[in-house]
Each structure stands twice: as C-alpha cells, then as structure tokens.
Sequence to fold (1034 residues):
Amino acid sequence: MRQNMVLFNIHLKLNSYSHYDCTQMKRVASGISPVIAIDKRKRQFLYKQVYESYRQAIVEGRLAPGQRVPSTRVAAMELGISRIPVLDAYAQLLAEGYFESRVGSGTVVSRSLPDRAIPLRAASAPSPSASGGRRPVAKRCSALPSGGDLYRRRGRGAFAVGQVAFDHFPFQVWNRLVTRYSRRMRAGGLDYGDAMGLPDLRDAIASHLRTARGLHCQAEQILVVSGSQQGLELACRVLLDAGDRVWMEEPGYSFARSVFTSNDCRIVPVPVDSEGLDVASGIRQCRRARAAVVTPSHQYPLGATMSASRRLQLLDWAAKNEAWIIEDDYDSEHRYEGLPATSLQGMDRNSRVVYVGTLSKVLFPSLRLGYVVAPLDLVERFRAVRLAMDICPPTLFQNVLADFIREGHFSRHIRRMRTLYAERRSVLIESLRRELGSVAELSGGQAGMHLAILMNGIDDRVTADRAERVRLWLTPLSPAYHRSENARTGFILGLGSVPVQDIPDAVRKLGTILHGK
Amino acid sequence: MRQNMVLFNIHLKLNSYSHYDCTQMKRVASGISPVIAIDKRKRQFLYKQVYESYRQAIVEGRLAPGQRVPSTRVAAMELGISRIPVLDAYAQLLAEGYFESRVGSGTVVSRSLPDRAIPLRAASAPSPSASGGRRPVAKRCSALPSGGDLYRRRGRGAFAVGQVAFDHFPFQVWNRLVTRYSRRMRAGGLDYGDAMGLPDLRDAIASHLRTARGLHCQAEQILVVSGSQQGLELACRVLLDAGDRVWMEEPGYSFARSVFTSNDCRIVPVPVDSEGLDVASGIRQCRRARAAVVTPSHQYPLGATMSASRRLQLLDWAAKNEAWIIEDDYDSEHRYEGLPATSLQGMDRNSRVVYVGTLSKVLFPSLRLGYVVAPLDLVERFRAVRLAMDICPPTLFQNVLADFIREGHFSRHIRRMRTLYAERRSVLIESLRRELGSVAELSGGQAGMHLAILMNGIDDRVTADRAERVRLWLTPLSPAYHRSENARTGFILGLGSVPVQDIPDAVRKLGTILHGK
Fold:
C-alpha cells in the first residue's frame, strides 16, 4: 500500500498582500503544511482524491482563506499524475467556492470563507460520542422511555406481549398475493399513492368494520396508517393542541401515553375497574378535557370490556363538552365468549369518536398496517396531517391486503386464530389457577391475546428481569400506570406466540420464580 | 325479502315501580314501540340479529332504562325462532350491561344506563356530514394545506415534480429480490423489527453514504424511516420544542414547513441566492434560532448548491449557538457537472448536523423508505421518538433494499439514471431557452430532477390550472414562499418522468400557454 501512496506537501507561499483588499488579509501561520494524499491503487477516481484532499484541508483549517495553492501543472507534476484529474478537481473546488482564481494572483483558497472558526473549536470541543453525555434535546421528547415495555422482553414464546401465533400464518396464500402484485408492478405503481390509502383497501376495511365491529362508516372515512401507534399520533395531531388535557386509562398502554406527552398534551389518568374507564371520576377530575383515549373492547392491560352504561356516559360527556373520544380497538377481533363487543364508534350518534385499529394482532406486526376511521367532517384535516407526517402509506402490501380481505382469507384466518387463542387462553387460565391460585388475581381473560395477573408485595420489574434469564418473557404491570402512587404490581402475560403444549411448563417456571422470591 | 322478515313489536310493560329503588324510577313514555327485525334469510346469525336489534333500540332510546323486556320464551315464540339464539343474545346483553335481571322482576333494560341523554341530542344535533361545516380542530393543524403542491398536479409526464423515470426501473431484478424474501418469510420475520431499521440495511446505507456523499457515519447512527418527510418530522420532534424558532429557506419546500408549523415551531424565512441560504441574513433576523433546515446540495426549488463559504458560516453559527442543522439531501445523487457536492454532515466537526435522505428519488416514491443520520449522542433519543411515532419500519422491503444495494444494483441504477436525466435536462434547458429565452429566467439546472423558471407579471397558480387542462403539470413557484410578500412567480419543472423526445413539444405547449396569456 505504502509504495503506491504519493504524499505531496503543498508548497506554502504566503501571499501576505493581494492588490485587491489588502486590509482584510491576514498572515497565515507558516507552520501548517497540509498533506495531499493520493493512492493510485484506490478505486476512487484520482480527481476525486485530489478534490477531497483539498476540501478536507480547507475545512479542517490546514489551508487558510487567501492561501495560495500550486498551479494545476505543478500539482500534477508533484503528484506524478496526469494534469486532467487535477484540472477537474480544481474546477470543482472553484465551482463550489473553496478556491478562487484571480488574474495575476493564481489560485487561492477562497477569501470569503470564515476565517479559522471551525478548526479551532473542532480541536477543543469534546467529541459528543467521546464525552459520553448527551446534549440537551427538546423537552417534549426528554421524558420518553427509550425502549419501553414493548421492547423490554424480546424473546418469542411464553409470555411475550404483542406477539401472534407466527407459525400459523397462512404464508402460502399471502406469498401468492405478494408475487401476484410484485409481478404486476408497473410504472404506475411506483408513484406516490393517495395519502388516505388505496381505494380498494379502504373499501375492504370499511366493509369489514361495518360487519365485524358494527361501525358506521364509509370507505371515504378510512385512512390507512402504519399501525395503531401512527393512528393515535394522527388523531392527537388533528384534535389536540399543546397544553390540552386528555383522559387516559390508569393503568393503560404506555406507548399511547408517549404519543400524547411527546405532543405536549397533559395526561389526566382516569382509573379503570371491571366496567372499564370510570367516567364519573374523569368528570370529577377534569370535565373540560379535550379528549378521552380508551380501549373499550378489551382494556389494556387489565382486560375489562367497557359496560354499556359507561359507554353511554362517555359518549354523553363527549357530546356535551364537545370533547373527542379516541377508541383504540387494538385486538377486538379475538373474543372468546359471545360476540365481540360492538365498537363505541358504532354507538356514537354525534360523530365524536375517532376509531383506531391495527392489523398487527390479526395478521402480523412487521406488516405495519392499521387504519383510522375519522368523522366525516374531519377527514380532510386528517388527510392534511397525514401528508405532513409521512405523505402516504407504501403501496404493495395495501394491494395484497385488499385481496386477502376480499378473497375471504382474512375472515378465515381470524376464525382459525380465535379457536387457537381460545384454547391457549383456557389452558393458561387453568394452569395459573393451579399454580398461583391463592397469590395472584386474574384479570381480563374474556378477550384478546393477553391477560393480567395482579400480585401484591412483589417488585414486578426485578422479577421480570430475573425471569428473562430463564427465557420467560414477563411484562411488568407497574409501568402501565402513569402515576407511580397508583401502581399495582403484577404481570401482563401474552398468549399469542406460546404453543398450547408449552403453557403448563411455562406457568410452572413462573411459579418457581415467584415462589422462589 | 319481505316475506322472510319477522317484525316483532316488543310488548311494552310499564314497570312503573320496582321494589328496589322506586324513587329513582321514571315513567317510560308509552308511545314508543321498538321494533325488533329478524331476517331469516340473512347470513348473520340469528342470535346476533336479536342482540343487535335490542342494542340499537337501547342506544337510540327506543327502550328506556328500567323498561321490561319479554322473557326469552315469549320473544322466541313471537319471532318464530328457536329459543337458543334468544338465550345467547340475552346472555350477551346481560354480560355487556344492556340488560339486568333481578329475581322476581324478570329482565329489564339496565337501570344504570344514562337516562335518555343520547337520543334527545342525537335527534336535535345536526349531523356533521349534513351540516357541511367542519367542527374546530387543533390550532396547530388548522393552517396545514389540505393537499398541497405535491398533490396538486397528479398526472405523469411533463413537468410533474417529484416523479422519477418510472419506466426505467429495474423491475425484474427488484421482483426477483421481493420473491426471494417473500418466499423466505418465516415466523421470525413477522414480529416487530428494530425501531432503527434492519441492521443489514443500516450497514448498506451507511457505507453508501460514506462513499457517495462523504458522510462521517456508522451504521448505528442510521435510522430507517418512511421518507424524508418522516425524517424531518423525527428531527423536529427530537430537537425542537413548541415555540422554538427555526430558519427555513425562502423559497423552500412547503411540505418541510408543514412539519415545523404543525409541531408549533416558529418559521424564520431566510432568503436564498445563488450561493444557497444567506446565513448572514439568518443571523441578523434571529441569531438564537434553534435550528436551520437546509437543502445544500440542490436547494429546493431554486436549485443553488450551497457555497463552501456559506457552508462554513452555517456550521460556525450552529456550533457557536448550539443550534442544529437539519440537512435535507433529497436528490443529491443526481448531479450532472462534476462531483455531487459533499454533504454538510461530512464537513461538520461538532456533530450539529442531522442528515435526512430519501429513496423516493433514486428508487421510487411508493417504496416509502428513507433514512436519518443522527449525531451519535442523540441516537437513543431519535429511537425513542421513532418508537412513539410508529414503532418501526416494515420489514420486507428493507431486506430487499439491503440486497439491492449490496449486490450493486443500486449504484448501477443511479449511474444509469444520471445519464438519462442529464440528457432530459439538457434538452429541457435548450428547449426552454429557445421557446422562452427572453421572458423566463432559468434557475438551478446543475443537479437534481427539476429546475425552476422565474417569470415576472404572471399569476402562476392560475396558469398552472390552465395548463392542467391540456395535461401539462406545472408546479407554481409562488406557494414555495412562506411570506407572500417575498413571493416571486414562475414554475418548478420536473424532468423525472418525461421522455426526452416529448420535451420539445411540452415546452412548446408551455410557451403557447404563457404567450397566450
């Protein structure tokens, strides 16, 4: 390598006075001797190497404003290369303003460059990576958890939350559709799509929601988003200003809280009980809140289904106070006893509900597709904010999903998964009763892909850390509380990705960890 | 249809007093006679029909709290169906709290439901869709444009901005990779991915950026996002609080402004000239701004490349004032004369630059992939905000793209497109000079996939509307100005999706429209 490198010490000529603006010129310290390194074996074009070397030397202050550089002829000679790459490099440096050229004074480093400001600080300022500490950022993002509960337990199986029965996904059908659309991809499919999503998919979603979830909606109210997280973000940005107060379930989904706190909203934590959100408590605490964020079908994490009475109270409050209800219906399709509870949106006669859903639970999380059902008069504002956030959803999987729904694979998959999860759920409940019957209180097993166990007198975070070491993925309950003084301890147990035959063993493991404490 | 419908008038029995809480009971108006409709031919299960009919009647106030409902036996008889679906429906209505059942008093509509609050308002409140007007939403989203410039001209061809040479995309290679990963998709690929993006792709992007754009970066600084729009959003949310002031180019990219205004930041419009952003003017207007958003490689829309002097001034200002520079390098790969200008990020020695890039221009927009290069000490905060915004990017196309880059298809495609666009560009410039030489001033043809023409004394929006009628897609220049008093008129002409042989004709058409005015 070495023998192929040409090191070239630029001859410094102090042009201490120019006949132009001699008052502004400064003497350039003569000790600095920048080195231009050219490696002929490198694949990088020679002209680029010459250009880069000069640019670096200037940026780093090794060449100062007004300093003369050798002529292209001299430089080519000293570097032992042809003059053409040097001419090209000089042209580029002139064009970009690093060099300037004046009749009679040759080529010099541009005199309009700020004088030595950068290198002085660069040398003295500690590199942010080396110093270790983080420089201050926006206050609104300072308090966000860095990974959060979702990423805390990353293994698959018992009892990771938010995971689905990955092995039971109909890969073959899905891949056939992916191939179909990938092959059909033509020029037209490459352009930006509609910010609201693909019309075919919006049709299919609207029709599914009307049938399966009792929504009152048309395709034009549907926005395709990347999941319920983006759905909440979107709703927040359209409906709430900085400083606005918002009711949130206590305990609740901490990722949902992140959306509202990072948008400068103020959280009013409203307790939940077996009937869901305690609306009367919300009214007592803050009647004038601008919105309520609720999971009425299956409260996260405690699992209650919001009662009819509470639903009507909530709708009533929203209508009277011109407040908004953001309904997060994240896993409503998986209900095991009776019908899935109807959506709040379907009960609302005043268009006060924004409905948010996701396909992460019924299909799979890495698909990154979900939807928002916006009130008809606000559709245009939702569209505007979505455009500002990230323009539009990607196209291919929207096509695939539209066909997957229309051809009946979607309902079939939901039905199959409901049976599968129902079995896992009943084995889990049975095992928990046998193993922890007296010490743990079970909460919310009628629906969804998780349930909660409440236990007194434990440190659930520490226990979760301990469980991780034996590859048991526990999500502690206490971080689901906004105020630590409200916090109860326990665990949220996901049943989505744990095979039924593994459940009794996993629960025994859990028992050992808890009893061993 | 009719003969299959069973209409069933519920026998209203006024249970005016219960032996429980007679003081709270109210008389129910006797004129209301809710109708339960069952259609035996409908595919919906009978129990669901019974359930829905009762629920609707209650929600709409046709059945009042405390009102008695017929026994399951009677209901089944009158509906002419078996008792089982009625039992199931009643069980569900009891479980959800619509009904309550007390020994001795049979089944009644739940007395805890709010009394008739909903139907009264539902009847009187105008439906938001019917009333036409929009209800007020958050102030921060009120001013956002609803479609904006990007969506204004939606045809393909001359001179739509933001479009690429769709026909020249290497569909075959791309589809082979899509099929490869789609077939390989296993359980593991379905779960949430890393919020930062796929490690392989981050590696490939970092290496591309170091080589092609002169960035100082490692893979761990890369965040995969859905495009430069989400990149800007992310940077704004991490770095700026509500009320913070931010320098933005005047004229500039209106979608970028949307990000900052909808996040409650205050825009300081800083003029651009042939050297890019006028840093001295920014300092005069507001030295203490928290950030500057710039497009140094190819200013949008006027096309200047930021000069070395301005670059160093800007870096200097940021370092001195602990401000941030958000570098939007949206189409830097397409430069036709000399080397692409190096990135600001690569010149920065104080880690003050957040670099934002997109694949919408070098690959295609509906892919929805881009990247952010965050300063090393802030990576963790960028990750936290990204999680709060939408968890993580979708997986499949990240795999495809990583291979597309690693296998050399990416650089090959960029090189091919550079030649193609260079030809289109020179034909466009030539045609414009011939057709509009004296009336239009050309701006920014050295790089990128668009150029601007400045023209005095026209209404560019009206002209763009007129051009649309003859399928010529003009983007007016004046909306690119934040302050209308600064606005110059003209057009931004995209050259990405117009075949070279169509350009002379399209320019003639443009000439006719302009001269015909």
User: Anything to note?
Assistant: The mean pLDDT of chain A is 85. DSSP finds 19 helices and 16 strands in chain A. The domain at 189-407 of chain A is CATH 3.40.640.10 (Aspartate Aminotransferase; domain 2).
